[in-house]
Amino acid sequence: MKRREFLSLMGAATAWPLAAHAQGPNPMRQLGVLMGLASSDVEQRVELAALTQELQKLGWADGRNIRIDFRWGDSDADRTWTSAKQLVELHPDVIVAHTTSAVSALAQQTRTIPIVFVLVSDPVGNGFVEDWAKPRGNITGFTDFEPPMADKWLELLKRAAPHITQVAVLFNPETAPGGGSVFLGPIEKAASAFGLNWMAVAIRNADEIEIVGSALGHRGATGLLVTPDIFTAAHRQQIIALAARYRLPAIYAYRYFATDGGLMSYGIDPADQCRQAAVYVDRILRGTTVSALPIQAPTKFELIINLKAAKTLGVNLPPTLLALADDVLE
Distance between CA atoms of 278 and 272, rounded to whole angstroms? Predict the structure, then answer.
């Protein structure tokens, strides 16, 4: 579903939890959904629509045979914890957890309610599961990136902007997978292979984003790699604007960074993972145990290039790179 098509449904979606509760006690199954960003985030709504529409295809209609309770993390640790607690106290049959921070909050509050996650980079390293093939506990789901992805991000950034000699890696240590460690080690190795100096740039709030942008803008020949992180996703408009203002060629992990004005992205489509999560929810509701549902890694990645952003940045993208793109935004 395209964003402009979905905007008209936003008001109705906001009322879904209320409508479900209004029906009172009933034999319907219960699903909890903890989304990482704010309810006002359009991309978040697109992903939520993908989840609920796939559930409908599988025979689960909110208010008819399933009650869906939605909560939002607002990319804030305290809010995410509170929202997780609220969902667990409802004792749903299963919970969908969006991003690492959501899974972490839920995992600390229940060991019995099945949790299906999306957009998690290192489920073993984060202590959510012990084994990909047989999760054993109450958690399974779909990962978004593995550490070796660092090589591809830097390769594409260097091809887009051959003049850069250093790359700044933007992340929030409070919300990034492993505090940032999941990707920083591989990025260090990949940077050396591409002849790039690199620096880890930790940001924890909007003010620090502006400070960092100004500092990087004066260094010259610098590229920007924005790692997958719920904080950077929530502040993507500010980061994209910063890159444009200081003419910093940047690569991002998710498509919506490019569609929102960033130079390019390479990664998965988050909405696809939400549709996959619906399939696991369906199987759990029909009796499949979590241990029988292996954690799955993505098999499809897409390169999205924004030509308008390239023009703003003064970057002349080579035809060979454009030919690799799955989508070129004019």
Answer: 10
